[in-house]
Amino acid sequence: MTGSTMQGKTSGKPDQKVIAEPFFLGRPASGNRTGLSFAACFSGLAVLILIPYAIYKYGAGFFWCALGLFAGMTVVWKVLPYRMYRYSRKGEGIRSFSDYVRIRFGKGSRVLSLVAAAAFTLFTLFFSVQLFRLGRDLFEAFFRRDDLWWIRVVSIFLLLPIIILGFSLITGMGRPTAILILFALALPVIAIFKQMGGSGIVRYTMMSGVPNTVSDYMNLLHYDGEPLTVATGISLFVAGFLFAGLPVSFPFFAVIRHTRQVKRARHAVFAWTLPVFVLSCFLGGISRAYLYLEGEVNSPAAYAAALFRSLRRGKLLAGTAAVIYAAALVAAFLLLLYFSFHRMITEMTSIISWMDEKAPRKLGMGIAVSWALLVLVEFRMPELSWGSVFFVIDFWACSAGPVMFSSIAIRKLSTAAVTAGVLLGSLGMVLPELLPEAIFGSKLTFFFGPEGAGSEIFSLTLSFLGIILFTRLFPEKDKDALTRFDEVKNRIG
After folding, report:
1. How much is the CA Rg of the chain, to the nearest whole Å?
2. Which of 16, 60, 254, 301 is deepest in the core (most CB within 10 A)?
3. 308 closest CA partner among 448, 151, 184
4. In the chain, pLDDT over 90 holds for what percent of residues?
């Protein structure tokens, strides 16, 4: 795979010449397809399992996490698309965060981009393994079988399509998966309301053992049976916001056919996300009553299986909803798994290529090394909770996110400022854990208590302050980098 360029006009007209890299960037796609692929990829599993299960378990107060997720996607698509589109036409195109660092800063960014590639390889490796284990849990919950060795072996071969088709597989799957997810949420909600009615939902919710009263359970200002504190509300919102704001969206911006499609992609994201999030929250609330006969479930996989079995026992509408829900679950799982592994291969290929500047991109070796690492870690890494997964997501978002957004807005942002931002963002996430509790936990309970969002807010604040300070002390002097910034700073389309 050669490092071919993606050249195109940036005046808002369709590109006259686009040389796409099928594996890394895929074929140019319409705005509608790109937007729906982005939305389904980042939110598919969340709206089908994680948000409904959390509301089922803790009550309507988890809505604030869903709101944060929506806000994060809004910020990403309001701030990034046009400039990312134009940067993707510079040099070899933007495939990843490390590519963006190299193209944005030019001279002196080689080491920084290599470190970014290594960090993101580890992140995607960790996340891919957790997705595999979620898939295993879903298999066991649906079929009620013990973990067998062949499940792990077969699951590795699920990755063959992404190796053959590359990023085009993700944009190809994204739009039908998004439509399938919409129906997979709407039909169960309609079927449950038709079967139980409002009064039945309230009665069975009370019988299901919900803490306190149903009114508290359905109250947006209550969480897990208790009044929602400001700290908990902020924590939930920030968790959702950081997940959607991860700096991994570059391929979606690079694959857009031309600038006029950027607005269409943004509209597709918002038009799909808003109703899907609302339906997801509704499904979580009413499923507490609907799953009463199944008994209380205590994991996302068990929740999905219980919902499927309950719907399957119903009449035609509920049975159809069960089939579509299961199909959407499989499609959303594969879409996110493919995207995560694709990102891992992309970064690993960059690392291998940078070891020998004279050699072309070694895609085959990048695939082989990525696959070997995934198999090794899948079989050897100990089981970790989803809390650990979300901490890693927060860590990556807090260390790389401020750099990504600052680089779009600050012309003289230098590699020194970027390095400071990444280091301070990382430090902010771990410092509250390292220092004595008396300094943070007991003195600033609002921020650093068990339900606070202090680590994330502290980390983001440190990172942005470090970026601003180091930009003042060590401004960018590379004229090529400044010229590239001037060429993309104006919004177009």
Report:
1. 23
2. 254
3. 184
4. 21
- Write the pLDDT tens digit of every residue in 103-117: 888 777 778 888 888
Distances (CA, A) of 436 to 279, 427, 431, 443, 450: 43, 15, 10, 11, 15
pLDDT above 50 (res 187): yes
Neighbour-count burial of 50, counting CB atoms closer than 10 A to its CB (0-12 exposed, 13-18 middle, 19+ buried): buried
SS3 state at 222: strand
CA distances from 232 to 11, 98, 224, 237, 389 (A): 46, 34, 11, 9, 19
In terms of average pLDDT, the best of 179-193, 212-226, 240-254, 341-355 is: 179-193
Q: What is the mean pLDDT of residues 339-367?
A: 81
Distance CA 401, CA 488 (A): 20
Q: Which two tokens stand for residue 203?
A: 């009665």
More confident residue, 281 or 16: 281
The closest alpha carbon to 282, from 51, 80, 466, belongs to 51
Distance CA(95)–CA(250), nearest Å, equals 6
Mean of pLDDT over the chain: 81
CA nearest 491: which of 190, 77, 143?
77
Measured distance CA(24)–CA(215) in Å, rounded: 50
pLDDT value, residue 151: 66
Name the token pair of 337: 């798994």
Average pLDDT of span 397-418 = 86
Q: Are 175 and 37 in contact (CB under 8 A)?
A: yes
The span from the CA of 304 to the CA of 309, in Å, is 9
Q: Which helix (H) or strand (E) holds 226?
A: strand 226-227
The answer to whether residues 267 and 35 touch, using CB atoms and an 8 Å cutoff, is yes
Please name every residue paired with 29 in a beta bridge, in sequence order, or none if there are none.
256
pLDDT at residue 437, as a whole number: 60
Query: CA nearest 38: which of 260, 237, 261, 238?
Result: 261
